[in-house]
Amino acid sequence: MRKLPGIAPPAAFHFGRTMQAKTIGIAGVTVPGAVDCLSKMHRLCAGRFPPLHHPRFVLDQPDFGAVHQAQDDDRWDRVADSIVGSLDRLAGAGAELAVIPANTVHLVVDDIRARSPIPLISMLDVVAEACAARGLKQVAILGTRWTMARRLYQTPLAERGITEIIPDEAQQALIQNAIFAELVPTGGASAVTVAALLEVVEAMKAQGCDGVALACTELPLVLNDANCGVPAIDTTLVLAEAALNAACV
Predict the structure, then answer these.
(1) Structural domains in the chain, sorted by start
(2) What predicted TM-score, i.e. pTM, was given to this entire model?
């Protein structure tokens, strides 16, 4: 085994391991979501790979404004077309599997998956599995208005015996504004906005939720287990972990 001077690799790994890992493609939707996904994949490599090593990552990041306009126009066919275009480019760059670090576009994941040239890991399955693994029974879904109103997670959660709780229309509008007025443009939110989001979480807890799915990839940038007071499922993190697991088989 070749060793780096002064650095002992973990006993369970060898330096050829990274060459065996599949190339992971990231079909970015929002920049903060894509960057956070890549960052979390990188951090999760610790203990899986020798120091300084990781799988090859390929990122395709189209202009989000066009995708957001298609969502506003209820043109989900255009949303799917944009993501499939990213997947085609990722495959051309050598990606062997892909993730889409954005919850809302999973409203058309079946269409996207059917047209994808490479295997696609769905957020819906891995997030629902993460909720089940933490023993949750009633999960509040916080995300864009499309994710919440269209009950994106209802079926995958129900298949695992979990009930979803959805914020009311006023709360949905508050979350939508926080996402698109602050979190997506800046990657953060003001203390006032974070406090308002936590008030929604408290309202969901009063309705009986025992966990919260942060079902927008920007929400984990400001919400977590500690400030929510209940398990807060970081959908970006569980997707990143699933991608690494799939890449290392």
Answers:
(1) 24-122+238-247 (3.40.50.1860), 124-235 (3.40.50.1860)
(2) 0.89
